[in-house]
Design brief:
The protein has 235 residues and is an alpha+beta fold. Helices cover 44% and strands 28% of the residues.
Length: 235
């Protein structure tokens, strides 16, 4: 089945719209979608390119990241992958506290989503940081082809002095090396400077990728009709 065949199956009356995000290194797929004429925008992600030598990658972290990874180890932080539903529940409670404290989250993922991801053993890695027998932070990483995608994380702010997120990200990068992957994709930052700085510390570089969007013209017209009717009745 070609890309054009997939798009033709998506463009049906029952489809209101769809979005297709294309990886930074999938130029051929992006070019196919461009030739079909789907509206596209370029977005920025941060990508760390890796090779077979973890020590060389570690040496390329900036001095702050290297020092904080070492500090996490000195403080006795235990970083491990987890398949535990209990760990997921602890993580989710941390996530809710972080979201409540920030008050800026537009959407809260449901608890069942994380429990479902835990079952995807070959595709998802759940990495937690534990201090004195207590899970204090976690991160979710997706195995995406020959790369790894950093998707979600949360940390108990009471334990920030132990730098758990530095231990978690370093663990994921080492895992990517062990699995023979070629990159770690840190994702976009939505222009948030602190996130960009965090990603830069690992040697991840801003890289362009694609977002393709299609909106069914029929449903767009229907929305305009409904809006006109609401306006008419409101007068």
């Amino acid at each position: 089945m070609t890309v054009r065949d997939v798009v033709s199956q998506l463009k049906t009356l029952s489809t209101v719209s769809f979005e297709w995000n294309v990886r930074f290194d999938h130029d051929a797929l992006a070019n196919e979608l461009l030739t079909i004429g789907i509206t596209s925008t370029r977005t920025v992600t941060h990508v760390l390119t890796i090779n077979d030598d973890y020590e060389a990658t570690f040496a390329a972290y900036n001095s702050t990241a290297r020092n904080l990874v070492r500090r996490a180890k000195r403080e006795g932080l235990l970083v491990r992958t987890s398949r535990s539903s209990q760990d997921v529940n602890v993580y989710y409670d941390i996530y809710l506290r972080v979201a409540s404290a920030k008050g800026t989250y537009r959407f809260i993922h449901p608890r069942k989503l994380f429990h479902g991801l835990l079952e995807l053993r070959n595709d998802v890695a759940f990495i937690v940081a534990e201090y004195d027998g207590r899970v204090i932070a976690g991160g979710w990483f997706f195995r995406d082809g020959d790369g790894m995608l950093y998707w979600h994380a949360a940390m108990n702010a009471e334990f920030s002095k132990y730098s758990p997120m530095y231990g978690i990200v370093d663990h994921a990068i080492r895992m990517a090396h062990d699995e023979g992957r070629k990159s770690v994709n840190f994702g976009g930052s939505s222009g948030i400077r602190s996130l960009e700085e965090f990603k830069n510390k690992w040697g991840a570089e801003p890289t362009l990728c694609w977002r393709f969007q299609w909106h069914n013209p029929f449903w767009k017209s229907m929305r305009k009709v409904k809006a006109s009717l609401r306006y008419a009745y409101a007068r």
